[in-house]
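for the recovery benchmark. tokens below, seq after
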């Protein structure tokens, strides 16, 4: 992208703020935000609404990728059960998806959004025991989650669209 996705503006609002507000609207506060360094907490904190209940978590292995950050969150003693994963690059996320995942998970280990046959594992709702099943496996989460007891929740393509290049903002 050439710039920090957290701070990219969509309709005048930073991506991190848009996703955090959606989580809050779905009743998922406190919102735990995983960052690579304390400097990121300061930078991102400046664009977040002060009314949000945010808990900052510094990655144990900065820049190692989403699997490690998710494992850190799942093994934290304060982890919610289940834990809603939400990347910052889905600024059109809607609270209804998060509520549908919560309704759909039942006794499964993972509830995964799916649209037109494509799953979105970085928006999954997962139970803490998933950490022991994923381990430090480098295979894509999409593959690993499908091997677990899971449920797929159909969602609209527009709201799970992510930003990977500048043209995605058009």
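predicted aa per position
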């Amino acid at each position: 992208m050439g710039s920090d996705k957290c701070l990219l503006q969509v309709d005048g609002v930073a991506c991190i703020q848009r996703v955090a507000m959606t989580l809050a609207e779905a009743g998922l506060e406190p919102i735990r935000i995983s960052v690579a360094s304390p400097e990121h907490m300061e930078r991102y904190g400046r664009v977040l609404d002060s009314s949000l209940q945010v808990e900052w978590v510094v990655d144990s292995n900065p820049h190692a990728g989403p699997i490690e950050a998710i494992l850190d969150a799942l093994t934290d003693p304060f982890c919610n059960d289940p834990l809603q994963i939400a990347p910052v690059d889905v600024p059109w996320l809607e609270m209804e998806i998060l509520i549908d995942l919560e309704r759909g998970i039942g006794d499964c280990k993972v509830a995964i959004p799916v649209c037109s046959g494509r799953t979105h594992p970085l928006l999954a709702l997962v139970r803490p025991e998933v950490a022991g099943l994923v381990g430090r496996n480098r295979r894509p989460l999409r593959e690993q989650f499908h091997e677990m007891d899971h449920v797929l929740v159909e969602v609209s393509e527009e709201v799970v669209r992510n930003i990977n290049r500048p043209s995605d903002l058009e």
